[in-house]
Amino acid sequence: MGGRMPARRAFGWMTAAALAGLPSFHRAAQARQHDLTVAQIANRLHAVPFLLARERGWFGEMAGIGVRGFIGSSEGGATLRNALAAEVPYGEVSLPAVIAAIGQGIELSIVHGGVQAVSDQVWVVRRGESTIGSPRDLAGRKVGYTAPGTLSDMVSRAMIDSVGLASRVERKVVGPVRQKLAALRDGTVDVAMVAEPLFTRERDWLRPVWSADEVLGPCVQTVGVVRTEWMLRHGATLRGIIAARRRAVLTIRDEPAQGALVITGHYGVEPAAALAIVERLLAGNGFWSDGSFDETGMVTMQRGLERIGALSPGQGGDWRRALRADYLS
Fold it and tell me: Are the C-beta atoms of 132 and 313 separated by less than 8 Å?
């Protein structure tokens, strides 16, 4: 489910003197206010750096644009189409949707890394279920996943194959997350994958057993994309957007409590639990990329999609040709 996350307060983005030195697009963009596109804004933690950057006024300071809020969708293709059709045709969107679009010949550029891990995804059982502690315990059990071609389809297939139980585990399509939780609660399935922050909100009756990154390792979920012709005309604005997001990521790494405040304020998670989420996501290589590309993690996602038939080999074209690291500086 998507939707706009409304602004929490107004900011005095830049002084008139500073605005006078900006290109005309910056001045017009600043006056109009914009919604940026971020995948899964309503129910996932992809957008935390964007929310922090907006609250601190960094988009205005560094990119010269006013950001009113964020729009996203749970469907990757729709989010990508919305991003490329916007007045500021930029967004952080699902890598699978980007790979598919490149394979269809859609002109776009990948300008920064986004969510570079699947550590927000937690495999859970009902609290009180004590016999499942690792994927090896799934023989004879039912595993729930959202739908064919989804991340939970990809991770569940890899997980079951990795322990040689493909013929001994039943995988069941259970629908979006609320239906998935209902199936888990009534025993239709024994184990399912749930993302933060919903897991933390439902943790009174759920027990975590392992995380998705223990199955897949580094795996890129989202990347920043832009319509190429707009990028070539508005490079300074794009660099500023990327820099504002990067500043927020580095702030969260240095001060996890800043990220926790965003999660508490925008997703309704109590402060101590929000801080625990951020600290867990920052472990290892971290959840939010500072903008640099993790090509290994991108290949992991592509191969996973090919494995479940969501992407034919070669269908994604050469997505490396769309990488534009020159806008990271």
Answer: no
Quick check: 143 and 152 in contact, CB under 8 A?
Answer: no
Query: Can you tell me the distance from the alpha carbon of 14 to that of 11, in angstroms, rounded to the nearest whole number?
Result: 9
For helices 256-267 and 48-55, angle between their N-to-C axes, nearest 10 degrees: 90
Whether residue 4 is predicted with pLDDT greater than 90 in this model: the reply is: no
| Cα→Cα distances 196→210, 268, 303, Å | 13, 12, 24
Query: Can you tell me the distance from the alpha carbon of 24 to that of 2, in angstroms, rounded to the nearest whole number?
Result: 32
Residue 2 lies in a domain: no
% of the chain exceeding 90 in pLDDT: 79
d(CA 142, CA 184): 10
> Exposed, middle or buried, 210 (CB in 10 Å: 0-12/13-18/19+)?
middle
In 53-199, at which residue ranges do the beta strands (DSSP E only) sit?
A: 67-71, 90-94, 109-113, 121-126, 142-145, 170-173, 191-195
Question: What pLDDT does residue 316 have?
Answer: 62
pTM, full prediction: 0.87
Same domain as 267, residue 238: yes
Quote the number of domains for the chain: 2
Mean pLDDT of 218-226: 96
Same domain, 139 and 287: no
Contact 90, 238 (CB under 8 A): yes
Are 293 and 201 in a shared domain? Answer: no
Q: CB under 8 Å to 15, separation ≥6 — which residues?
A: none
What DSSP designation does 325 have? Answer: G
Q: Map tokens 């023989």 to a residue.
A: 139
